[in-house]
Amino acid sequence: MSEERKVGQNFDSDEADSIFDKLKNVEGKIKPKRQGKFDSITHLMQEAQILEKENKLDEAIKLYKEVIFTLPDSSKAYESLINIYQKQGDVESEKDILQKAISNCSKNEDFKKRLKEIN
Asked: What average pLDDT score do residues 78-88 get?
């Protein structure tokens, strides 16, 4: 049992996952664990877009929010969320997401314009 560990050998994936999760736990936020099917942000966005097209808006919202949690400056995810809330007539959620988008995607002036139009 006292095998010497060498780089690239005897890799303990559970221990590595634990260390990775601790590194991702920034500001008390714990990254949600994805359940197998989505192995990248791109796949997550694609699935959210498919759900949105199928009018499964609540499920799409959850996936877009996961994209934003993982990649806070994703203007595409913000735009999609804003559009969904606009379709649903949920002005408060639309304003909330616009404000978050403005703070995280400061280069995108469209979010500021849209927020001014709502107010």
From this structure: 95
